[in-house]
Amino acid sequence: MTNQDLLAVAREFGSPVYVYDAEKIAFQYNRLKNAFSEIKDLRIHYAVKALSNISILKYLNSLGSGMDTVSIQEVRLALEAGVAPKDIIYTPNGVSLEEIEQVVRLGVQINIDNLSILEQFGAKHPEVPVCIRINPHILAGGNSKISVGHVDSKFGISIHQMPLLLRIVENTGMTINGIHMHTGSDILDIEVFLRASEILFDSAKNFKNLEFLDFGSGFKVPYRENDIETDIEELGEKLTQRFENFCEEYGRELTLVFEPGKFLVSEAGKFLAKVNVIKQTTSTVFAGVDSGFNHLIRPMFYGSHHDIKNISNPDGKFRFYSVVGYICETDTFANNRRIAEITEGDILAFSNAGAYSFSMASNFNSRYRPTEVLWYNGKAHLIRERETFEDLLRHQKIVDLEAPAIKATK
Questions:
Q1: Where in the chain is the domain with CATH 2.40.37.10?
Q2: Binding site annotation covers 29?
Q3: Annotated catalytic residue: which of 328, 398, 401, 406?
Q4: Is 329 marked as binding a ligand?
Q5: Which of 86, 174, 310, 372 is most exposed by smallest CB count within 10 Å?
Q6: What pLDDT, on a 0 to 100 scale, did the predictor assign at position 258?
Q7: CATH number assigned to the domain with residue range 22-264, chosen from the 4 options 3.20.20.10, 3.30.70.20, 3.40.50.1580, 3.40.50.11540
Q8: Is the pLDDT of residue 354 over 50?
Q9: 93-102, 130-139, 169-178: which has the minimum mean pLDDT?
Q10: Which residues of 216-240 are buried (b: 16+ CB within 10 A; e: fewer)?
């Protein structure tokens, strides 16, 4: 997508607006697939939580992707998008046994990450094959909020609890058909990932009826020019050899599964916002836009970096701006960022806005959630309408109340 394409989207659909490049999504999908082309049975399950618009799910499914889901609602979205139940894995955390049973009735592969639910489920449904999520106690992730494999994480069954896990499996007679791990997002060093993989292989030796090993994801994408990213090609070369060796030791071919989210959609997304006001203070020049952390919370929540370009004046003289939103809270997208000169009415484009951006949007300050557009085959396709005031009132119930009488005091 060119700057002119993005400006045309902003003119047609207004701002703020999310724009996703289908070609970039396909490129990333095929890049991962090609890196592991030597694997006889590779499955890529897109992490729905990253961006759950049903048009995106349908597009990824058309590329050959299955779905990684964490809630029954995500499971239902995947089914609605036409994904076969056998191509969906459900990996919840802290949900009730009742929700897991509902998902089982939909024919989806379940993945259990705690001993209590595993024992309860195995006692009631020993005939249903189950995947187990282990915690390898390997720290990965660029931020504490997205590191999920460390020793104090709420996710997964600790590898040190393997004897308890095996006792539950033996006592219930349940079948374990998969082993899963996920260390966290933004993996910087593939050697860390490979060390965690060895723990997964060691854990897998305890189970005789495995059909697949699920390595999760967390592959880092670049957020700025010359930024570090996960070397998928090197990882593919090293992990392929190790996986094939393990399958030979295990005695049969297994399926290798990945669950990328950010890797597939982050770079495909642009977020466009219009500059409402330029405000000069004694020390700072603020560019205030028609959005806020209600639409893009990652900078405030994770401290994440999003490149910001003034696509209305890309060749202008560079100045330093703090880009802020219109929310009645501290609401900063960037501090003292070098951007081509901005005037009121300009359109700013935020990069890496495809993952965990719209999906984490809210109606804080009673603002509407924005439009979503898919750029496909050189054309803009509306895939979500901007919310309206009626949407804010939807599901609310108005109750007629009278204020209590106030007694006079002496």
A1: 269-385
A2: no
A3: 328
A4: yes
A5: 86
A6: 97
A7: 3.20.20.10
A8: yes
A9: 130-139
A10: bbbbbbebeeeeeebebeebbebbb
Average pLDDT of the chain is 93
Two structure tokens written together for 344: 């009121």
Q: Which residue has the tokens 């802020």?
A: 324
Amino acid letter, 364: F
Q: How far is 19 from 227, CA to CA, in rounded Å?
A: 23
Least confident of 7-21, 192-206, 353-367: 192-206
SS3 for 389? helix
Phi, psi angle pair for 278, to nearest 5°:
-105, 120
pLDDT reading at 383 higher than 60: yes
CA 223 to each of CA 66, 265, 288: distance values in angstroms, whole numbers, following the listed order: 26, 13, 22
54-63 and 72-80 helices, crossing angle to 10°: 60
Amino acid 126: pLDDT: 97
Residue 302 annotated as binding site? yes
Q: What is the DSSP string of 101-147?
A: HHHHHTTPEEEE--HHHHHHHHHH-TTS-EEEEEE------SSGGGB
- Residue 18 annotated as lining a ligand binding site: no
Q: Is pLDDT at 228 greater than 70 in this prediction?
A: yes
For residue 279, name the pLDDT band (cuts at 50, 70, 90). very high
Find the mean pLDDT for residues 376-401: 95
Strand 176-180 to 318-324 pairing: unpaired
For residues 363 and 332, give the distance between their C-alpha atoms in angstroms, rounded to a whole number: 17
Q: Is 90 annotated as a binding residue?
A: no
The half-sphere exposure of 214 on its side-chain side, counting CA atoms within 13 A, is 33
What pLDDT, on the 0 to 100 scale, is given for residue 410? 64
Fold (CATH) for 269-385: Lyase, Ornithine Decarboxylase; Chain A, domain 1 (2.40.37)
The CATH 3.20.20.10 portion of the chain extends over 22-264
Confidence class for position 348, pLDDT limits 50, 70, 90: very high
Q: Are strands 269-280 and 88-90 parallel, antiparallel or unpaired?
A: unpaired
* Alpha-carbon gap, residue 65 to 33, rounded angstroms: 10
328 an active-site residue? yes
Written as six digits, the tokens of 90 are 């459900």
The pLDDT value given to residue 191 = 87
